[in-house]
Amino acid sequence: MDAYALDILQPLLLSLKVALWATAINLVLGVSVAYGLSRWRSGWRDLVDSLLTLPLVLPPTVLGYYLLVLLGRRGTVGAWLDHWGLSPVFTWQGAVIASTLVAFPMIQKAAQAAFENVDAEYEAAARVLGLKGPAIFFRVLLPLASRGITAGALLAFARALGEFGATLMIAGNMPGRTQTLSTAIFAAVQAGDDAGATTLVVVASITCVVVLLIAGRLAPGRRRS
Amino acid sequence: MSIDVAIRHVAISDHRRFELDVAFATDKRRLVIYGPSGAGKTLTLRAVAGLLRPDHGRIVVNGRTLFDSDQGVDIAAQDRRCGYLFQDYALFPHLTVVQNIRFGRKAGLRNPSRGGMDDTSARWIKALELEAVLRSYPSQLSGGQQQRTALARALAAGPDILLLDEPFSAVDPALRGRLRQELNELQSAFDLPMIVITHDPADADALGDEVLEIRDGRIHLADPGG
């Protein structure tokens, strides 16, 4: 494969890989937190809810900075990770952490709304039929909330795919290692490589259209009724 | 059957305070609690099923103490063996009729398969004449079929007692007479103890060996009934 194709393919594949990981992690994390919050009756709930929404409103560079402070070699968590040789700074795993954080509210919000919309009578029905908590979750709540969760997961994937600011801060922009589509476009423009930038922009646009088409297939909308 | 209930409960919702203070005991097999909406019928039935925890009192069904605040007894809804027919049936919309009926017969984290069957469920499917719609989803059923599916689901779980919340309010008035008759036939054929709550005097006449009237959270008069 020639070097030019590799310059496009590598960032594209890395972007897809990072977005898939971030979405998968958020499916477990976001859905669990959403379920917990949908059950939690406490005055603290609104505060926790607001804090979890922060990634949606804070500039991604601010999130990236927080991550650096926390996970950098001198950070509290970072120093401990470094001791085990696991520093995420300037690695693609670091990009996954950044994308996961930024996309988290997409799934958490959607899943929480979906859980809260499930009629409480279904859970009552499952209880009188003898089912305990975990069985009710997997057999009733999760299937009934699945449309909302899927919609959230697609948004999260799209958001993770386009992540730039936080990724740049923690993972950097190293061609072949941590350079994603968004950071590659930035680098090409900085270097005055207009042709390269154009190609990458077209690839990014096509990828997004393909993702949206797949989303339309998978997603909510057509279901037996 | 014997039912012995004496409970007190204060429910607060939407700035409305409602005080439930009911006591009744019967050894009749078909008990109807009759009263207007908002009188505390559903709260009472939910307390018997274990879906509501009363502030004080005692609930004994067939000699089995389900709840006793003095002795600290509060059997979980899952273990009370109460079949509950919800007002709007609460059939699981993502499951077919057969999956709904077998729902309580299968333990574990996965729902029953669409093709599976077991003897108890098969017996109730036959008794309630649901063979033709086993693979349908609840939303594809008529009101009467939905009600029979919900009954089959409750009965397949093997309850000691059947609790029915406004069993005919969600069906076409023209159908109610026939459905009451069906329920009575089913009740006598399988000798099922039941508590029916309703605001419809016709239900009280047709279904009650004993009729209690509830108003503003209190039992008002005991009518010897039919």
Question: Can you describe what's shown?
Answer:
- The complex is a heterodimer of chains A (225) and B (226).
- Chain A is mainly alpha-helical and 225 residues long.
- In chain A, 78% of the residues lie in helices and 0% in strands.
- Chain A is built from ten helices and no strands.
- In chain A, helix 7 runs antiparallel to helix 10.
- Chain A is globular.
- Chain A starts with a helix and ends in a 7-residue tail after the last helix.
- Chain B is an alpha/beta fold and 226 residues long.
- In chain B, 28% of the residues lie in helices and 29% in strands.
- Chain B is built from six helices and eleven strands.
- In chain B, the strands form two sheets. Chain B has a six-stranded mixed sheet, sandwiched between helices. A five-stranded antiparallel sheet of chain B has the order 2-1-4-5-6, covered by helices on one side.
- In chain B, helix 3 packs antiparallel against helix 4.
- In chain B, 42% of the residues are buried.
- The mean pLDDT of chain B is 91.
- The chains are: A mainly alpha (225), B alpha/beta (226).
- At the A-B interface, helix 6 and helix 7 of A face strand 7 of B.
